[in-house]
Amino acid sequence: MAEGIHHYFEELVAKHEGILAILVTDRDGVPLVKVADPKVPQNALRASFLSTFSTTAEQASKLGLSKNKSIVCFFASYQVVHFSFLPLVVSIIATSQANTGLLLGLEKEFEETVKAVKVVVDGV
Amino acid sequence: MGCCFSSEEDTDGQRQASERDPLLGGSSAPIANGQRPVDDAHNHSSGPISRTDEQSLLSRILHQTAHKVIDVSSTEPHSIERTEYMERSRQYMSKLSAVNSSTLHSPTDLPNGVKVPQSVLASDPIPQGDIAFAIQAAKGADASLSGFHVEHRDELVVQFESSS
């Protein structure tokens, strides 16, 4: 069934213009699901890069603006959107031309799937 | 710590028991600042158990402060061991097979905001007159805005004279 989830995220990547990769990882950046286009920079797929979100979100939640839900990072050629489903994290890597609002709106779409994954891997 | 203070009137055996109670019970009631000097004074006169009490109080305060403080140094990425990475990755793969296929929602064909395309496509096209009107209004607004300019009359920086 792991292929089913993989296929689900592959479809998401294929259907939306500009998305290069979607990763579902744990808080340390270990991937559960990894769907990536060959064009995506390898550094963005490293656990050390992906794990920065969980620590940053943790600190950002102390700003008095309630819990941090997502962080968008813009780079010269890429943008990265992280969603908090702690202990899981969903990261979308896209080109800088991709529609950021659309990427943020994707959360509603994969929310149920990620929650199902979260229940299964709980306790690992 | 309120229990600790009230136990002064009790016998020795009972005092020890009551001192342990809030610690083991994990009482989460906040400690009033005004109470601390009294507790400290009391703790100095007691044995090693009181010292443990103080230690736990201090560690609790430290823990609470660390929880509230935004620590920039902790944002440094911590890398995990390669073996642990592989092991966890393998565990996740085996666990993922247990995900129920019925919970997988197939992605919608159209992005959010275009949920009812038939109503949008079936509606009457916009009349040419309306389009011409919109273009004319936009041109008018553009012409008006281009005519905007700031007329400099007074000094932007006003000097206030000193009263002394």
Automatic annotation (TrEMBL), chain A:
Gene3D superfamilies documented for this protein: Dynein light chain 2a, cytoplasmic
Source organism, top-level taxon: Eukaryota
Gene: LAMTOR3
Protein family (similarity comment): Belongs to the LAMTOR3 family.
Protein name: Ragulator complex protein lamtor3
A Gene Ontology BP annotation from the UniProt entry: cellular response to amino acid stimulus
GO CC annotation: Ragulator complex
A Pfam family per the record: MAPKK1_Int
Cross-referenced InterPro entries: LAMTOR3
Cross-referenced PANTHER family: RAGULATOR COMPLEX PROTEIN LAMTOR3, REGULATOR COMPLEX PROTEIN LAMTOR3
TrEMBL record, chain B:
Lipoprotein is among the record's keywords: yes
Disordered: region residues: 1-58
GO MF annotation, one: guanyl-nucleotide exchange factor activity
Signal peptide: none
A biological-process GO annotation: lysosome organization
Major place of residence: membrane
Membrane topology recorded in Swiss-Prot or TrEMBL: Lipid-anchor
InterPro entries in UniProt: LAMTOR1/MEH1 (IPR028209)
Keywords from the named record: Endosome, Lipoprotein, Lysosome, Membrane, Myristate, Palmitate
GO CC annotation terms, alphabetical: late endosome membrane; lysosomal membrane; membrane raft; Ragulator complex
Keyword Lipoprotein: yes
Pfam family, one: LAMTOR
Domain of life: Eukaryota
Coiled-coil residues: none
Family: Belongs to the LAMTOR1 family.
Protein's recorded name: Ragulator complex protein LAMTOR1
Native organism: Desmophyllum pertusum
Gene: LAMTOR1
